[in-house]
Automatic annotation (TrEMBL), chain A:
Subcellular localization: Nucleus; Cytoplasm; Secreted
Enzyme class: transferase
Record's catalysed reaction(s): beta-nicotinamide D-ribonucleotide + diphosphate = 5-phospho-alpha-D-ribose 1-diphosphate + nicotinamide + H(+)
Pathway: Cofactor biosynthesis; NAD(+) biosynthesis; nicotinamide D-ribonucleotide from 5-phospho-alpha-D-ribose 1-diphosphate and nicotinamide: step 1/1
Residues of the Nicotinamide phosphoribosyltransferase N-terminal domain: 7-107
Keywords on record: Biological rhythms, Cytokine, Cytoplasm, Glycosyltransferase, Nucleus, Pyridine nucleotide biosynthesis, Secreted, Transferase
Single GO cellular component term: extracellular space
EC number: 2.4.2.12
Family the UniProt entry places it in: Belongs to the NAPRTase family.
Provenance organism: Oncorhynchus mykiss (Rainbow trout)
Record-linked PANTHER family: NICOTINAMIDE PHOSPHORIBOSYLTRANSFERASE (PTHR43816)
Protein name per the record: Nicotinamide phosphoribosyltransferase
Taxonomic path: Eukaryota, Metazoa, Chordata, Craniata, Vertebrata
GO molecular function: cytokine activity; nicotinamide phosphoribosyltransferase activity
Domain Nicotinate/nicotinamide phosphoribosyltransferase: 179-418
Automatic annotation (TrEMBL), chain B:
Keywords assigned by UniProt, alphabetized: Biological rhythms, Cytokine, Cytoplasm, Glycosyltransferase, Nucleus, Pyridine nucleotide biosynthesis, Secreted, Transferase
Enzyme Commission number(s) from the entry: 2.4.2.12
Gene designation: NAMPT
Protein name according to UniProt: Nicotinamide phosphoribosyltransferase
Reaction(s) this enzyme catalyzes, per UniProt: beta-nicotinamide D-ribonucleotide + diphosphate = 5-phospho-alpha-D-ribose 1-diphosphate + nicotinamide + H(+)
Source organism of this protein record: Oncorhynchus mykiss
Pathway(s) it belongs to: Cofactor biosynthesis; NAD(+) biosynthesis; nicotinamide D-ribonucleotide from 5-phospho-alpha-D-ribose 1-diphosphate and nicotinamide: step 1/1
Annotated GO MF terms: cytokine activity; nicotinamide phosphoribosyltransferase activity
Amino acid sequence: MAAQDFNILLATDSYKITHYKQYPPNVSKVYSYFECRRKRGGTQFSEIVFFGLQYLLKKYLSGRVITEEKIQEAKVFYQMHFRQTVFDEEGWRKVLEKYDGRLPIRIKAVPEGKIIPRGNVLFTVENTDPDFFWLTNYIETMLVQMWYPISVATISREFKKILAKHLKATSGSLEGLDFKLHDFGYRGVSSQESAALGGAAHLVNFCSTDTVAGLLMAQRYYGCPMAGFSMPAAEHSTIISWGRSREKEAFESMLDQFPTGPVSVVSDSYDIFKACRHIWGDKLKERVIERSEDSCLIIRPDSGDPAETLIEVIKILEECFGCSLNSQGFKVLPSYLRIIQGDGIDLNSVDEILEKLSDEGWSAENVFFGCGSALLQKLNRDTLNCAFKCSYVEINGKGMDVYKQPVTDPSKGSKRGLLSLRRNSDDFIETVERGVGKPEEDMLVIVFENGSIVQEYTLEEIRKNARLLEDYMAPSQHNQDEPKSLEPHQKHIMNGVH
Amino acid sequence: ITKQCFVIYVVHGLEYHVCQPISIQGSNHPFIIVINCICIISFQVTHYKQYPPNTTKVYSYFECRAKKTESTKIQKVKYDKTVFYGLQYILHKYLKGKVVTPQKITEAKEVYREHFQDDVFNEKGWEYILEKYDGHLPIEIKAVPEGSVIPRGNVLFTVESTDPECYWLTNWVETILVQIWYPITVATNSREQKKILARYLLETSGNQDKLEYKLHDFGYRGVSSQETAGIGASAHLVNFKGTDTVAGICVIKKYYGTKDPVPGFSVPAAEHSTITAWGKDHEKDAFEHIVRQFPNVPVSIVSDSYDIYNACEKIWGEDLRSLIESRSADAPLVIRPDSGDPLDTVLKVLEILGRKFCTTENSRGYKVLPPYIRVIQGDGVDINTLQEIVAGMKKHRWSIENVGFGSGGALLQKLTRDLLSCCFKCSFVVTNGLGLNVFKDPVADPNKRSKKGRLSLHRTPTGDFVTLEEGKGSLEENGPDLLHTVFRNGVILKTYTFDEVRDNAKIRDCDLEESVD
């Protein structure tokens, strides 16, 4: 049930307080929808992962969300905030009286985890009682925050595609893919709540994280007891506190403290290259090679140009420890030794790094990645053009399709009428407008009605929905009339070319 | 070994390293120092510790690093100084009082066992805190006053453990404290925009009236969570008073307090649904209805649902003109474009309105629309486009009095920890009773070098700020330390009201001295 001290009346853009006075007279229904609009000119992200609605519903919208105390608190607040009386006290009291404080709203949504092409309806919102037409867009502000878990899950999955491509090409299998991208973003995100939500969104695609809040979110809202894993790892303070001349002692202590299981040691406090060559590769070499594959040492550079640093580090490690060739003919470090690059990682640099490694003959098996702000913070609502718009109203009992179509920006045009989502005869997902969609074909499912959550998903189901397909880019996931929306590497995969 | 106690480390009899003078706890006898060092070398390390054995204190600090080397991309805005804000929220919400209970320890132990597939959680450490301190955190935080505007590269707060058993606690709280990057960055970026607006407003009108309402927070829907909305919106209100992100006001009331009933205000405004719901052929009816609903306060009407220029020319400029002209200066119609190139759209809208409603020339020779009509640009506004728009308006002889701005994603979301290079680093430890200045200095990036030793912040005789390292700040000749103890052992010792924060962060004349063009 929704949080007790959270006041939904104070969780909206101020101006929405005044909208009940602005709709046409005798309006009895306002129906709105959410999409990740398509931007003209070739989108970078042509499909999205739908995730996060269940969290919002459980935390903020379900159950008894209106009380008399909350109405009074809001009334007093808005009086001061607007410097006049404009708050719709009566309207909210009716919600309290008629529905015991539960919201007379219906939300239909795509199942969580589903992969949907841009430009399609993802969920719709409408009032279920004519008296509460103003409620649909009152909750827009909160629902539009869906942009965040959708965007994190989508970007995280794009990382996975790149990693999968390189891993398959240089090693012949996808073993360990789920652990290739580690969430380092906890400190670089804007709040604890965002850390939890973003952290959970990443766990739709991967199983490695240091953002503990995300694990708890997945546990409490998506029924997964333990969604992600980590390993002991050093940070700079635990190395430099030994003193500049005792980096070797600090490193050795790490190996002593954590003799089994993988251990990651940040090695750039002073000079990453000397640390690799003289400490790991010489003074502590015996200690390193006695570690098993399950207890590998993972060296972490954390400064300098990511690709160049990585290449130089791997070359030094090759000199000191040797390497072998895998079934695809690519070089692999001994199984007790790996590298994790956790600085400066984003979609471009990951691709670039793995490309350069591959050019130099190195398998993607050698490297793990850690990503912080690019995964959880360097995103915004414009990344996937997320928007919520009214598409249909009923006035005097008569339905009318409505829309905006600004002459100054056609890409901001909105959909019209009642909407549904379906797979067409060519197996492409498309949105049907103007209420002509067939109910039996509609992929949108009622998830929330009159204060109750009527459909839930577990993280397990979500992960299944969001998995990469065998050939990564099955044609059914794209609209056929937009082959340009495939990025170059995706086309290569489809054609079997790398 | 000299009288000044330079420490010589003997490392397996092979190397000699002469270190800088350090503070020594327990004894000043030089001989004991050497004995202690030898003991470190042969010491057996125990479980859970990555810190050197017998570490009894870890001291760390937070700064917005200065960029010493030029980055490849040229940043238009320099962000030389930052606004320190948001620590009080973190202290109140997450760190004060009893933060550990037996249940939480048990929960954590189970979670971490699954998460690491191993028992690495420091259960004993947390049980110690529970027993000895009733779950209060034995750390001390010293910080610059909230709202202070401090140049980059200076210490902003320090954190140290107060109990030798809890040396590990300092960096345990790093993750949560580093999230202060967000309110600092929002407040700083918001203030830089205020400086731009102030300069151009002053230049084109001769005064700074209503400056605090010139940049309205539209960012509630574009942030990543409810909590972020509250923190970010409150940070913007350090500099301005107009907001639609209600959550920010709640944060201020709960964690800072103001003498006024509320620190932020808004006005009735339309959104697209309240216009389009009338139907495409009834935009005029929608406009008229809404304007009539709010006769005595400013009302903002989004006018680009179909054609912003037609709306300005025909509907506002002709059909509803007399209705608008009858409004008072306290209750203007504020027309809101919401698409198209921001500068082009603003200029074209002003041009149309200027033709339809006439303009007057103010004391500085710039055009002003009649007081009953204004414009708010709330789409695509960030610090760079803001600069472009006000510069473009000035060039076309339009006073900044005519416009207000709204900003959403750019104000509250399009920011990262890298913008101001916020980071938290260990600078001093005590091991075996010996203090040691520690730092990182990666060969591949001088920007990432950290400060050494105990730190303090001082004012120089010329009024600049300087961070003193290696404990030098304790010498009397350097003047008082501007860092105050705000938190110790679970208790908040010093708080700031939001009024104080605003006062510390206000724009001074020297901030406007940069030339307008």
